[in-house]
């Protein structure tokens, strides 16, 4: 089965860890937009040069540029894939839908890792980044919630959103993620 999955979740939910495990266990191409952007810059491709110029200015990479990079990777990989933390806003979600339709690779499921705010704050503060004060972390989580609500609704309306409890050990969460994908393959699209 060529699984095509988007994994969503707030900062501190464990997306990166869970995506790596899930991709390895199921033989999926793991696409993290941050990793893709860095890789594109390293290759010094035309897109990479554009990304480098944007990053050097301290700006955010545009939705169109990110989508162009994602398109390049998905066009070369017809097997299953997993997008890690992308899309990040409703504009990107709509653009991704169009891209996937063009490629003939419709999304099968959007997994939303859910962790309550107090746990997220604790996890992010433990990370120990110099800019991670409680006030800054809470503000980031509020921004994430504001930007992500429309994405969740977008996928929920289409019957593609599945929520996964992100609390517990790495192994427990990984098992829940895998079970959610198995349920989707069996036609069970329980929504959040």
TrEMBL record:
One of its GO terms (cellular component) is cytoplasm. InterPro entries: Adenylat/UMP-CMP_kin, Adenylat_kinase_CS, P-loop_NTPase. CDD domains: ADK. Pathway: Purine metabolism; AMP biosynthesis via salvage pathway; AMP from ADP: step 1/1. ATP binds at residues 12-17, 127, 168. GO terms for biological process: AMP salvage. It catalyses: AMP + ATP = 2 ADP. It comes from the Bacteria. Coiled coil: none annotated. Its EC number is 2.7.4.3. Residues 32-61 are annotated as: NMP. Its main location: cytoplasm. AMP binds at residues 33, 38, 59-61, 85-88, 92, 129, 140. Monomer. HAMAP family: Adenylate_kinase_Adk. Catalyzes the reversible transfer of the terminal phosphate group between ATP and AMP. Plays an important role in cellular energy homeostasis and in adenine nucleotide metabolism. This is Adenylate kinase. It comes from Candidatus Synechococcus spongiarum. The gene is adk.
